[in-house]
Amino acid sequence: VLGNQDLQDSIKPQKVEFHSLNFNTTLHWQPGWAREARDALYFVQYKVYGQSTWQNKDECWGISSHVCDLTHETSDIQEPYYSRVRAALAGVYSSWSLSCRFTPWRETMIGPPIVTVAHSNKSITVKLQAPRSPYRRKRGSKIPMTNYYDLLYQVFIINNLLDEQHRVLVYEGKDKVIKIEDLRPGVSYCIVAKMYMPMLDHSSAYSSRQCTVL
């Protein structure tokens, strides 16, 4: 039987990390190495860097999950945050496992834009919509990520006759509607796009493909 100290060490959460996409921010961790750790419950706290007191995250207090949503708690996106997690099993509590410092504005990943395409016989019109943050305007609509960063749309065309993997950049800029002209009728084209942030030199993943035959 494990002694208390051994049990404390063996259920201590591992790899406590923030994951964030478009400011939707969750804390993830892995259970301790003990087989019994599968049955542990977890307790999450957070604070802004420089504050002396930790805040309990009530919805993640005594949970069996290994994920905790901290979107609301990290909404001041320029502030650096820390979080920490401890485990409890059979009345024994582990010590706290600390995350790295997390600053939403610097570290959130930007998602791809939403792309819709319409075509005529020789051109494709592409409509782009920036990803949205979880934060809402007073009227209730979600604030787009373009409000927080200087973002550009990058639009790529794939000519399926030539090579399905070969993407050609046809537009970079801020327009939400662009027209790609002088295309060949009868040919299948696909459009993908991503968001690009020049200041931090970050790109989003590619959007899903939108394909059309002229």
Automatic annotation (TrEMBL):
Xref: InterPro entries: FN3_dom, FN3_sf, Ig-like_fold, Interferon/interleukin_rcp_dom, Type-II_Cytokine-TF_Rcpt
Keywords: Disulfide bond, Receptor, Repeat, Secreted, Signal
Every Interferon/interleukin receptor domain range: 108-212
Role according to the record: Receptor for IL22. Binds to IL22, prevents interaction with the functional IL-22R complex and blocks the activity of IL22 (in vitro). May play an important role as an IL22 antagonist in the regulation of inflammatory responses.
Record Gene3D superfamilies: Immunoglobulins (2.60.40.10)
Native source species: Calcarius ornatus (Chestnut-collared longspur)
Protein name: Interleukin-22 receptor subunit alpha-2
Main location as per UniProt: secreted
